């Protein structure tokens, strides 16, 4: 009896706290039916926002994955003075407010920043333009690949790699044939977390963007301007799309786990 | 003597210790360039900016009462939300690990939902849900509780984004706690309240503090999920990250940077505090 009551309480809580928000998104997006909702997605500014989000995400994921793999290699395979400091530095963006993560780029490249006016004279604009959005996104997504790879690669040990070195394998061969195949689940998970964060980042991007519809608005920023402009259906349709993309990416993380289980478990 | 040590340290740094694996210099160069540009350079800009207009300006910033009001709003809301998440997190984690919950896997996946929904989407959604005409806002306002555009709204939004941190910190530790301890305590005649308090909760204290620290740090800097539900009235429901944005729109970079530095300091202090408390408690629990 107590147990039944606890089950009801748990699912009630989950429903109230966690399931209600996605239900609200769908209800608001479809409040006038499905056609008006789909129609809002054809707006050119909306399409531009989707394209910009995809572009920024691809750049952030590619660059931070390359960095993440090399940094994890450095931090797990070598012991050198300053290693502890680097370990702290690569995790730092996680404990910095998103708004501050955007602000730092204005301090460097904004009109009042260190190099802003010099770059402006050369005709290069970084703040309030796409390069600024990319820099802010790279900053907030920097830790994810490194921090998922490090514990796994630490646990892997160096034996197989040392054997490969003795057998005459080079750095790239070891990395792609020995290390990464063993760490592929962690790498996959890190890449997915980077993707989700890059797509959904709001605070940091909002500070450096300049909010020009069709030019420097990513999906989260476009959602904000639609919502503040009382275009509720359009705002929630875009929100539903973004939430769907992000949730798919996050839940894909448990895919390797799931596949392994079905393979090992014959039943 | 010192010079000899320095030389040795430098040699170690240059060769990457005693590892025989290749790729040290390449990965070192890439890591140093990337962290140098993306972490160290921005931190320098942040630390140096307030002093750029002279020492007097720094003192001036410290008289900004609106800034302290905003910092207090963020701080108190983050503490309240993290505290309220402790019982919620403990309950959910316990039900997931020990509760034989029907649909456990589904529930477990749903815990990550607040992390999976982008902050701006959470923001407009919670604002709609708790608005005076919203699904939860309407019944609440009937019994006299106004959520949207008040501090309560800020706390609720922060609880939403902070909950996964609490559950995910407690869950693995609870899983590793031997189940026999609870049964042994029960067999020895402990009452349910004693089992929960002394056997279950006591070893979880360091974990709960870690979860609290993570949820608090996230809440202190949170922006997207809060600004739509908060009224954003100066001195009342304006959070510190929003005031940074306001200062930037006024082209007051020094004012914005001052708030940013204080936020950064608070999050470092909370990380250090959590680390210290955990160390002390883990010594204490393993000794007893």
Automatic annotation (TrEMBL), chain A:
Subunit comment: The complex is composed of two ATP-binding proteins (CysA), two transmembrane proteins (CysT and CysW) and a solute-binding protein (CysP).
Keywords, ordered alphabetically: Membrane, Sulfate transport, Transmembrane, Transmembrane helix, Transport
Major localization listed first in the record, in broad terms: membrane
Membrane-spanning ranges: 56-75, 87-110, 122-146, 185-212, 232-252
Compartments, as annotated in UniProt: Cell membrane
Highest taxon, organism lineage: Bacteria
Membrane topology, record value: Multi-pass membrane protein
InterPro entries: MetI-like, MetI-like_sf, Sulph_transpt2
Organism: Acetobacter thailandicus
Protein name: Sulfate ABC transporter permease subunit
Alphabetical list of Pfam families matching this protein: BPD_transp_1 (PF00528)
Domain ABC transmembrane type-1: 50-253
Function (record text): Part of the ABC transporter complex CysAWTP (TC 3.A.1.6.1) involved in sulfate/thiosulfate import. Probably responsible for the translocation of the substrate across the membrane.
